[in-house]
Amino acid sequence: MIIAVHAKLCVNEIGKDRLSSRIMEAMASVPRHRFVPVELQELAYEDLPLPIGFGKTISQPFIVALMTDLLAVEEHDKVLEIGTGFGYQAAVLAELAMGVYSVEIIAELATEGELRLRGAGYDKVRLRIGDGSRGWSEHAPFDKIMMTAAPEHIPERLLEQLRPGGRMVLPVGVEDEQKLIVVEKDNHNQVRTRELMAVRFSQLITSH
C-alpha cells in the first residue's frame, strides 16, 4: 500500500517506519471516493490532496493516516476535529473513536460534509458550523483534538478544551512555513509540544 511505502521514506521525520495496523485498517475501511468531488473520483485512491472548493482540499491519504496515527485514538475517546471539509478525516476518526465532533466554518462545506458522512453511514460524527479556533465548549473536554487547517499559533481555547492526559495534532505556521506539531497535556495540565515535519495545509479561517 502506498501509505506504507511513504511511511518508510519519511522515517527520519516521523521517527518510525510504519503506521499502526489499526490505522491502516481504518484507512482501508473508509471509501475515499465518497468524500471527493464526483469529477475527481477516478483519483480518489491516489496518494494526492484533491480540491473540494473554497480554496480547501481533502488531504492526501498518507497525511491523513500519519496524523491519525500520531493522535493515538482509542476506542473510548471523544475526538474534536477542526475543519470538516467533505468529511473524510472525520470518517477515518469515526472508525477508531467512540465519538467525533467536527467544526467547519464554511457553511457550504459543512452541509456537504454532513451529507457525505450520513450517506456513508457515519452517524457517530456530530457537526456544527462555527469558528474552529473556539472549539466546541459544550462537549469539552476532549480526549483528542485534530486540526486539518493551519493556525499561526496553537489556539488557547483548544488547549483549554483538551483533557489532562490528552493529545492534539495540528499543522502550525504561516503559508509555506508550516510544521506538523504534536501537543500533549499531562495530568497536571502541563503542555509539551513536539515538531515533526514540514507540511502544507490551508490556513485556518476564523471569525476574529
Question: What brief labels describe this structure?
Answer:
two-stranded antiparallel sheet; Rossmann fold; single chain; 208 residues; seven-stranded mixed sheet; 9 strands
How would you summarize this macromolecular structure in one to three sentences?
By secondary structure, the protein is of the alpha/beta class.
Describe the structure.
- There is one protein chain.
- This protein is of the alpha/beta class and 208 residues long.
- 28% of the residues lie in helices and 29% in strands.
- The protein has a single domain, classed as Rossmann fold, CATH 3.40.50.
- The chain is built from seven helices and nine strands.
- It has a seven-stranded mixed β-sheet.
- Strand 3 (78-82), helix 5 (88-94) and strand 4 form a beta-alpha-beta unit.
- Helix 1 (2-9) crosses helix 4 (61-71).
- It is globular, with a radius of gyration of 16 Å.
- 44% of the residues are buried.
- The model has no long low-confidence stretch (mean pLDDT 91).
